[in-house]
Design brief:
Length: 126
């Protein structure tokens, strides 16, 4: 049974930082591209960042480029999202997702993902 479990969300002031983690189990993690999406109340789920199965390629939404960094540790079956210079508009539920060997250039499409976590809440106060 595949499980993706997010952690690290919370309340932070604007300009602050958070590091989200996603723990994967039940799949050959090193063969899966993984990504982060977010969904704010009343809005569509949107792409944030993704990383290829090898970690050699990344893809970011324009809104987070230069502020967020995605990484992975295949030995630990873990993925991370370092979020710096947080803004109130970054507040959302953040989800991690996994898909088998999809290239980084196609990872912004949520329909490409097979497995999803339950999400972790990020709140940014102004």
């Amino acid at each position: 049974q595949v499980q993706l479990v997010e952690s690290g969300g919370g309340l932070v002031q604007a300009g602050g930082s958070l590091r989200l983690s996603c723990a994967a189990s039940g799949l050959a993690f090193s063969s899966y591209s993984v990504g982060w999406f977010r969904q704010a109340p009343g809005k569509e789920r949107e792409f944030v960042a993704a990383i290829s199965w090898s970690g050699g390629a990344t893809n970011y939404a324009d809104s987070v480029k230069g502020r967020f960094a995605i990484s992975r540790d295949n030995a630990k079956n873990m993925m991370y999202l370092q979020m710096n210079s947080l803004k109130p508009e970054d507040a959302a539920v953040y989800y991690c997702a996994a898909t088998f060997r999809v290239p980084a250039t196609r990872l912004s499409d949520p329909s490409k993902y097979t497995y999803w976590g339950q999400g972790t809440q990020v709140t940014v106060s102004s």
